[in-house]
Amino acid sequence: MCGIFGYIGSEKATPILCRGLKNLEYRGYDSVGIATVSSQLGIRKEVGRIDDLVSRLNIEDVEGSLGIGHTRWATHGPVTAENSHPHTDCFDKVAIIHNGIIENYLELKTKLVERGHRFSSDTDSEVIAHLIEDNLSFSGTISGSESSWNGSSFEDACVAAFKELRGSFAVLAVREGEDKIVAVRKDSPLVVGLAENGTFFASDVAPFLEWTKEVVYLENHDIVMAEGSEVRFFDGGFAEVKRPVSTVEWDIEEAKKGNFDHFMLKEITEQAETIQRACVQDMAVVERIASMIRSGFGVFFVACGSSFHACLTGSYLFSKVAKLHVNVVLASEFENYEHFLTDRTLIFAVSQSGETADVLEAVRAAKRRGSRVVSITNVMGSSLSREADELLLMNSGPEICVLSTKTYTSQVVMMGLLACALDGNYESCVQKVKDLYMDVYNLTAKSMRDRLKDLARDLAEKDHIYMIGRGLQYTTALEAALKVKEVSYIHTEAFAGGELKHGPLALIEKGTPVFVFVSRDNEDRIVSNAQEVKARGGYLIGVSDWDNPVFDRWIKVPDCGDLNPIIQAIPMQVLAYELAVKKNLDPDKPRNLAKSVTVL
Ligand code: F6R
Question: Which segments does the entry list as coiled coil (predicted)?
Fold first, then answer.
């Protein structure tokens, strides 16, 4: 949700900023901009994507070996060039980029306007540039001619400005004539990459992997001063601190598209491998978590979007396999349950990015009440990975497509592993996942894709698609519906099979497509729900291991018992992809969405 990138070093900044922003585009793509520092600030910004900026604004000509860049997902103010970052002070001497929300921006803006500052955007972020300007003890009247700076140092001015901000923010600031970048992070992600050719800043590590794998994960409230080749870290109290350097284990190739047209297809195809990697866990940690679950007085799974669907699937698995009840709550609704939290409660926070603001807020509420927190995330060094008492990593490698595909199935694997660990059957679950390898491989092979491409052709013009299932197939239907709707923009909704007769049947007309997810253990009941749809003219597409006569179309998947949610989700991911391609949409970057949702 907004991506920020910065570089200071020995090379020309603009080509690096452009590549970094391109790598970061999955965090926001409605507008983009850069600022570099040479004799003057070189600022270019544009509505659209980084490729538009490069082609329309001769961006490669902008000089300077340090610069900052931003790719925006609008929160305050419409998508316009003025609202794009970087934002500057009154005289274009200071430029900032920001990810997060400045909660007190109206109050700050009013004060700054009274002092003569002129604003040129509707954003909350612009106040930061003016605050820095103000703190530089500006002499003379702002509304007059250009100023002369004569006050405190740029670093001091930045720090004083950061202190006035409330909300969440990762900010990079530069100033004309200064060979430095000043950065701060509070409740919004920011990491620092250390390379021979310079220092990198980014919202996460993937964008600078092609230059370095050496990374410093900042603590909350940290301030960073990068000057020339030197980088210094300060804590919130402005004491200089040492921060450990970690080596990222992700491979650079994993963050590239390779021979695939889109990251979405690449990541779907990786699943035969990634579900295996999800099983590579430290048994001691799994045992500790299992015992925390057993002794927890109230266990809450908390997540958003696809991660929430993985948690729902987990709750069915915990009930079925481990005979344990867990509560599953959308992170954005968790405040309604906070009063149940005690020091005996266990919060299970699941988030691919580890930066989803709603999830982090739930985690922080839990910690304030003394509850313990276990997290499942894909991103080492993310806020969630650092705030949890126990951590399990998905090991899926970077997921660049905005849609979760491989990380969803890894989350489901991990839910299954934990349920089995609680039941004393961890190893046999690992073996079952290993046995899925060829099935998953076949589901993503070309022959399957061609069949789903045919189906996509027939569905592409539909206005509505429905999906039904029971138990583990209901949660699979929810996830499948999310995938199809978010990437094809076709209204797609899932229902529990038994709920149809309580309302949704009214939606069925002649030819309405309805997917039916079937498992051997709930076949009779879901097929009778399917009959109810058929009787009203619905067009049934079965997802099952055998072709029931009630189906008009059939997607063949093997029956893998409790692991069916993995096997049945995959063809639906492929179908969603093919629908997007058929409709000439970008599957990697659906409209209005961003990969990492760092605002509440
Ligand atoms: C859907 C999707 C989103 C995310 C959700 C949570 O394809 O990707 O619904 O699942 O935004 O993100 P994380 O898991 O990073 O917390």
Answer: none
